[in-house]
Q: What sequence folds into this?
């Protein structure tokens, strides 16, 4: 499953994997809390930025407010999306699109930054995310590498993500599928093969930060209470988002127009004016991921600006330091992942780059004031 990160895939690839658990492909539903799923008739039109002439370029102002985060009623929801709970967030600016290759290239040109995938694997660091006693792999296996998806030739066991994920040396943001591939002509596509560390480094350079999960979901919902997707409840996915049609992972019919990434803004925005909150590429959030985090949030009447759990934990990868990602990608489909739903969450280790994973940034008023005065 794509939630399993670099450390596990790497160890499995080199034959040292000691732990892998079957992933959950079936939705769970306990219906303990009722949540409204109908779109209200008075849903707002696209909300205009508070100060469009004065806002950071490429971002839209999301007015602060209260909403129900997570879901108990979406038939496809997984246990970590429950219980639905009340959250209040302050207003913030958010990127209208995922960060593009052109934008990331400017950052790299200005700073000389090397992404996680471009650096040799640091065994001392990796060691902390694998079962104790795992032997050190040979040095030739610790070369720069990243995770690449490959369409299979026939239907495969969906419980074994090694059927479609490989750890490829030379795969990085400039070569998303490995040596011989490039991003030439894909300047307006979202950057991929970025780890959480890379996304944070970009944000810092830009005077921004990653969204919290609470901010991300609030923005994705577009002010429409209880909908399943950023556009509402319409099940005609190819009309709204870049996901996967056909049979995963062997047949990609690209009914939505794209087999891998699409240029940002290829589909209509949500009611906040945000593009690709569902699909195209996954988006890192600032929070650690903890499978039971919502249970602790739900103990409060309202969680105010929640920042995520203090410690990460994903039972599928108990040693990994996992961060949350949101929105799903061009690989998501109804059978396997369905993470284009606004409530869907994903745990991925902070050092993992994948060719379906990127990010977008947010900015507070204070950050914008500081940036403006530079
Ligand atoms: Ca597609
Ligand atoms: Ca996205």
A:
């Amino acid at each position: 499953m794509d939630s399993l990160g670099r450390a596990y895939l790497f160890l499995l690839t080199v034959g040292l994997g000691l732990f892998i658990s079957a992933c959950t492909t079936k939705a769970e539903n306990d219906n303990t809390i009722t949540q409204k799923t109908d779109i209200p008739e008075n849903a707002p039109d696209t909300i205009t930025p508070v100060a469009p002439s004065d806002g950071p370029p490429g971002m839209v102002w999301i007015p602060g407010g209260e909403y129900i985060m997570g879901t108990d009623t979406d038939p496809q929801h997984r246990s970590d999306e429950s219980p639905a709970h009340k959250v209040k967030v302050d207003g913030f600016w958010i990127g209208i699109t995922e960060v593009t290759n052109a934008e990331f290239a400017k950052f790299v040109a200005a700073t000389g930054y090397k992404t996680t995938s471009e650096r040799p694997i640091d065994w001392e660091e990796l060691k902390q995310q694998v079962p104790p006693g795992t032997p050190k792999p040979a040095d030739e296996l610790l070369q720069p590498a990243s995770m690449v998806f490959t369409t299979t030739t026939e239907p495969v066991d969906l419980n074994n993500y090694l059927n479609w994920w490989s750890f490829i040396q030379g795969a990085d943001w400039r070569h998303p599928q490995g040596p011989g591939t490039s991003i030439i002509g894909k300047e307006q596509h979202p950057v991929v093969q970025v780890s959480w560390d890379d996304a944070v480094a970009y944000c810092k350079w830009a005077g921004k930060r990653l969204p919290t999960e609470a901010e991300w979901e609030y923005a994705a919902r577009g002010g429409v209470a209880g909908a399943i997707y950023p556009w509402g409840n319409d099940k005609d996915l190819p009309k709204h988002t870049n996901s996967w049609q056909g049979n995963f992972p062997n047949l990609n019919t690209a009914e939505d127009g794209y087999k891998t990434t699409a240029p940002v803004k290829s589909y209509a925005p949500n009611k906040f004016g945000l593009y690709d909150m569902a699909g195209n590429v996954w988006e890192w959030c600032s929070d650690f991921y903890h499978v039971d985090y919502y249970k602790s949030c739900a103990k409060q009447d309202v969680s105010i600006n929640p920042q995520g759990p203090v410690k990460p934990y994903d039972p599928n990868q108990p040693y990994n330091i996992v961060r949350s990602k949101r929105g799903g990608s061009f690989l998501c489909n109804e059978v396997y992942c369905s993470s284009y739903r606004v409530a869907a969450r994903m745990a991925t280790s902070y050092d993992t780059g994948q060719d379906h994973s990127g990010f977008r940034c947010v900015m507070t008023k204070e950050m914008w004031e500081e940036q403006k005065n530079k």
In short: The pocket of calcium ion (ligand 2) is lined by residues 98, 276, 279-281, 283, 327 (CB under 6 Å). The two ends are 44 Å apart (CA to CA). The CA atoms of residues 29 and 75 lie 7 Å apart. The chain has one domain: 3-372.
